[in-house]
Amino acid sequence: MAEPLYLGIDVGSVSTNLAAINKNGETVYSSYFRTKGQPIETVKKGLKELGTALGPNLRIAGAGTTGSGRNLAAVMLGADVVKNEITTHAVAASQLCPGVNTVLEIGGQDSKLIILRHGVVVDFAMNSVCAAGTGSFLDQQAARLGIPIEEFGGLALKAKNPVRIAGRCSVFAESDMIHKQQLGNSIADIIAGLCAALVRNYLNNLAKGKSLREPVVFQGGVAANAGIKKAFETALGLEIVVPPEYGVMGAYGAALLARSGVKDRPTTFFGLGISEKLHSSCSFYCRDCANTCEVVELSCEDSVLARWGDRCGKWSATPRDVPFLSRY
User: Fold this and answer.
1) Which of the four CATH numbers 3.40.50.12780, 3.90.650.10, 3.30.1360.120, 3.30.420.40 does domain 4-89+250-276 have?
2) Stretch 259-283: mean pLDDT, rounded?
3) pTM above 0.85?
4) CA-CA distances (angstroms) from residue 102 to 22, 25, 159, 243?
5) What residue segments make up the domains of the chain, in order of their start?
């Protein structure tokens, strides 16, 4: 019989990540996909690739979802556990770096700061208002400079005299960057300045009044950027740890929570076969009262999986029966 694995899926607006772990918490598979505004199709694509990579004997003993699209993904998958990003990132960091006190997370759309003490989250902050503190800011500037984002961090480390760039707003930052180029500053110095600006923005928005203690773990897609890591170390005067699973920590944490969530009971996961099913979503307005709620409906084949968006529960509380989705 195949070894039981636990699946975590992190569905975000920019990327969708999958992680499968064994009973010991070791990652046996991970993947990253651009969501491109199509979370349903991206999740199905991820499940197909998971099945291809691990073979026909794959056995998922539990599944968890997280991210901004966690509820949608949970309905599709029949997930055992649904948790927010703060919880999954904290759990993942604690697993890979026991005793962690501070988690810095920067993704494509938002950024997070999580403070832990003795393995418990005691404070957190999120920034989803301005792109200047996220990975999309770096993507935009890399595209403008004509430099692959993968080379951004390496160039930042070559800087001799990093310039200071206004990083409070992505629009002002770009204008300031153009001005520095026109003054003749090197690309490496400008990129290092951009990295420092992003870190300054992050700390000003999220870390004021908070005690950032070691160990400090840096995760999220931007953790691959060595220039940002160095900028954090310079600003904080602390060593920054980048875990091996930095890019899929949300999914990894969801998988860990799925493992502890199912324990000895059977999983409710529908199986990888759902990647072959036809899913569709639509919305309608309920006009039974003055609230006029917009209700979103998700269907698979000819069966309604779930509805949500109503305030009174008239639609979302209706039980669903989807007999054609076989479970393990």
Assistant:
1) 3.30.420.40
2) 90
3) yes
4) 26, 21, 28, 13
5) 4-89+250-276, 98-242, 278-328
